[in-house]
Amino acid sequence: MGFDFLRSATTRRTTSALVASAALAFALAPASAETIRWARVGDALTLDPHSQNEGPTTAVMHHIYETLVDREVDGTLEPRLATEWSIHPDDPTVWVFKLREGVKFHGGEDLTAEDVVFSVERVRHEASDFKGLHANVVGAEAIDDYTVHIKMDGPSPLYPNNLTNFFIMDKGWSEANDVVAPQNYDAGEEKFSTRNTNGTGPYKLISRDPEVRTVMQHFDGHWDEKPQVTEIIYTPIKEEATRVAALLSGEVDLVQDVPVQDIARLQNTAGINVTTGPENRVIFFAYDMGSDKLISANVDDNPFKKPEVREAMALALDRDAIMKVVMRGQSLPTGVAMPPFVNGWTEELDKYELPDVDKAKALLAEAGYPDGFSVDLNCPNDRYLNDEAICQAYVGMLGRIGINANLVSQSRSLHFPLISNRTTDFYLLGWGVPTFDSSYIFNFLVHTDNGTLGGWNGSRYSNPELDEMMQAIATEVDLEKRNEMIGQIWAQLQADRVLLPVHNQLLAYATREGVKLDVHPENTPKMTDVVFE
Amino acid sequence: MNRFARAWDSDVAYSFRHSPVAMVAAIVALTIILSAVLAPWIAPHEPFNPATLNLMDGFTPPGTPNAFTGNTFILGTDDQGRDILSAILYGARISLFVGFAAVVFAMVMGITLGLIAGWRGGWVDSLLMRIADVQMSFPSILIALLIFGVARGFIPQDMREDLAIWVLIVSIGLSDWVPFARVVRGSAMVEKNKEYVQAARVIGVHPTRIVVSHILPNVLGPVLVIATIHLALAIIAEATLSFLGVGVPPTQPSLGTLIRIGQGFLFSGEWWILLFPSVALLALALSVNLLGDWLRDALNPRLR
């Protein structure tokens, strides 16, 4: 076969450099033209489709479960399990979804309106990480086998945008296996749905060894036309050099999280293709500006409460240096915690201040910390491009103005619960916006935590006036007026310096020659889109 | 004849003077140890004071000026703009400290248990030696990993960073006491039936005193040899654990941590971040090991 020749040529050329690949203890099966061996930095945190609203988890879920609507690479919504959707002609607060007929779950059950109604209830459960996207839902009702009404608490013209990561489960299977409620990940719970699946997706789960290997095979009963890829072998490889080595030696076909330092080299390697593109994701720092006292600080009050301190921290951040050195140009520095894809983004908001160490020191002194203070900075080390290096660089920059940040970097499975459980004072987070609308950022990151909204508001920011506006935009029908309100909210958030944005990251996917896959703006590539050449 | 001259004329010193390998190894080891101890005074930069770092110095190749800042570093800089030479000096300090402390820990534990086993004999001896046998059947790095993992589970989150080095020392030390205990036990069993010990017993010297002041000095020779060789092993064990990311925290990188950081830049052409710390570790471990080998030969009359 043609590919075998290519692969062995690549192997021979790079064997001497591949000391690191010896660390790959697992032997991967030889590839046929239909198998894609997909590697990225981390594994899905769980296979429960409503438990973790997190990129790599969602990326895997999209292969096993399906959503009512799908978002194309250009941002438009496309039918998936729903063939059409519209606002009810007599009631502007009701959305009507017509389901695709003849859809089967992997276990053989038929997809009916009852399953959708069940999934709506499940995703709104307290333990669901997606509940913030369905905050305006009052209830769902099956009209007939293939029609569902979703009742909202007010007119919600943009609601279908919230459904691109809303996975449909089978009611009977969930009841039989006692997984009617989602797994509570942050509490350390494990359920049947953590390792077992029953979706309608194009691939069914064959085997799963968390953090090691997940195998999926094409589901013959799938409603859509058969994709070129019929088997997926998904392997998380945390070490950067090992991940690249696995691609160079032909052990994997696709590497999703290409380390920025290796892009140039891979582009110049024969037999390897690199595709790059912007991700709909912003990387930012956030701090607890609500509590009276911090957990890890050496002062008795909360410095982050003082606007001068927040301004000083912004003035310490040298975004251009991070872009040039840490990211090697693979990022777009920004002054707002919102990617340019999102409705509400303006060039004005995107502008950022240049670093000014003297002014920052003066501000700290003015705030009552002439000698600075010390605090822990929590950082993931296996989630975003060079996340740990970004934190390290910022620790240095903070050090120059007198703030002594102790870096605590750990795996994302430990890092994210710190934010959801509010046990971190100061942390790095990246936020992708699957709805392409500012309200997704507001509802999760800055709305007062009320159990449904504000689930990721580790800043403890609370502004009742803004909360009201954030809720109002969910049901505002006049789009012009809605955009005006979004602008007002952003102006207040920027003035309060609620989040400290660093940059939007650029993505790179590397594949062996003959495998074609475009960069997905939400970084949830679908293997059904892979083309073998 | 003064003390120095007497030492110079001794058998061991004679053997040293006639072993070029030992001399070179001693020079290399002493140079590294001295420069590590004096790192705060001789290092050109303060690599772990974040306030003195400039990110724009990052990835400067050795000996060439940085494209943005124009600064030059003899061995280049890493991804955060840290001077590699200074990082190695400070890193060697941590590696050596952990190595020495772990060996001292293992030595004290091994000697104590070995003396008890050898002196008491019977079921105490059987018990201790069976524990040793079980431990010998696992690679020591696995045991260190296990102890490290368990210890981290017990220590509260906010103290982990501060205690990481001590936990590491104890893990390596605990995984390494067996060779000391076995050698000491063997020697102690031989010594305890010798006439001078029996004489001491007859005149009613307390057993503890016999063990400590009569038997112990006579078993120290072989212990010294093991300690030297195990110093090299402990340094490598520390580097391995840090390379695997479970050792010292990244804010106080040892040589192993530096190698782990450098490994990420292996494919992108920044070879110096990996190479120089690796060479430093190699030189340190090899020279200490060669010294240990020489010491073993020099102290063994049968090999002369």
TrEMBL record, chain A:
<comment type="similarity">
    <text>Belongs to the bacterial solute-binding protein 5 family.</text>
</comment>
<dbReference type="GO" id="GO:0043190">
    <property type="term" value="C:ATP-binding cassette (ABC) transporter complex"/>
</dbReference>
<dbReference type="InterPro" id="IPR000914">
    <property type="entry name" value="SBP_5_dom"/>
</dbReference>
<dbReference type="GO" id="GO:0015833">
    <property type="term" value="P:peptide transport"/>
</dbReference>
<protein>
    <submittedName>
        <fullName>Peptide ABC transporter substrate-binding protein</fullName>
    </submittedName>
</protein>
<feature type="signal peptide">
    <location>
        <begin position="1"/>
        <end position="33"/>
    </location>
</feature>
<dbReference type="Pfam" id="PF00496">
    <property type="entry name" value="SBP_bac_5"/>
</dbReference>
<keyword id="KW-0813">Transport</keyword>
<dbReference type="InterPro" id="IPR039424">
    <property type="entry name" value="SBP_5"/>
</dbReference>
<dbReference type="InterPro" id="IPR030678">
    <property type="entry name" value="Peptide/Ni-bd"/>
</dbReference>
<keyword id="KW-0732">Signal</keyword>
<dbReference type="GO" id="GO:0030288">
    <property type="term" value="C:outer membrane-bounded periplasmic space"/>
</dbReference>
<dbReference type="GO" id="GO:1904680">
    <property type="term" value="F:peptide transmembrane transporter activity"/>
</dbReference>
<feature type="domain" description="Solute-binding protein family 5">
    <location>
        <begin position="77"/>
        <end position="451"/>
    </location>
</feature>
TrEMBL record, chain B:
<dbReference type="InterPro" id="IPR035906">
    <property type="entry name" value="MetI-like_sf"/>
</dbReference>
<feature type="transmembrane region" description="Helical">
    <location>
        <begin position="131"/>
        <end position="151"/>
    </location>
</feature>
<dbReference type="GO" id="GO:0005886">
    <property type="term" value="C:plasma membrane"/>
</dbReference>
<feature type="transmembrane region" description="Helical">
    <location>
        <begin position="163"/>
        <end position="184"/>
    </location>
</feature>
<dbReference type="InterPro" id="IPR025966">
    <property type="entry name" value="OppC_N"/>
</dbReference>
<feature type="domain" description="ABC transmembrane type-1">
    <location>
        <begin position="92"/>
        <end position="292"/>
    </location>
</feature>
<protein>
    <submittedName>
        <fullName>Peptide ABC transporter permease</fullName>
    </submittedName>
</protein>
<keyword id="KW-0812">Transmembrane</keyword>
<dbReference type="InterPro" id="IPR000515">
    <property type="entry name" value="MetI-like"/>
</dbReference>
<feature type="transmembrane region" description="Helical">
    <location>
        <begin position="21"/>
        <end position="43"/>
    </location>
</feature>
<feature type="transmembrane region" description="Helical">
    <location>
        <begin position="94"/>
        <end position="119"/>
    </location>
</feature>
<dbReference type="Pfam" id="PF12911">
    <property type="entry name" value="OppC_N"/>
</dbReference>
<keyword id="KW-1003">Cell membrane</keyword>
<keyword id="KW-1133">Transmembrane helix</keyword>
<keyword id="KW-0472">Membrane</keyword>
<comment type="similarity">
    <text>Belongs to the binding-protein-dependent transport system permease family.</text>
</comment>
<dbReference type="Pfam" id="PF00528">
    <property type="entry name" value="BPD_transp_1"/>
</dbReference>
<feature type="transmembrane region" description="Helical">
    <location>
        <begin position="219"/>
        <end position="244"/>
    </location>
</feature>
<keyword id="KW-0813">Transport</keyword>
<dbReference type="InterPro" id="IPR050366">
    <property type="entry name" value="BP-dependent_transpt_permease"/>
</dbReference>
<dbReference type="GO" id="GO:0055085">
    <property type="term" value="P:transmembrane transport"/>
</dbReference>
<feature type="transmembrane region" description="Helical">
    <location>
        <begin position="271"/>
        <end position="295"/>
    </location>
</feature>
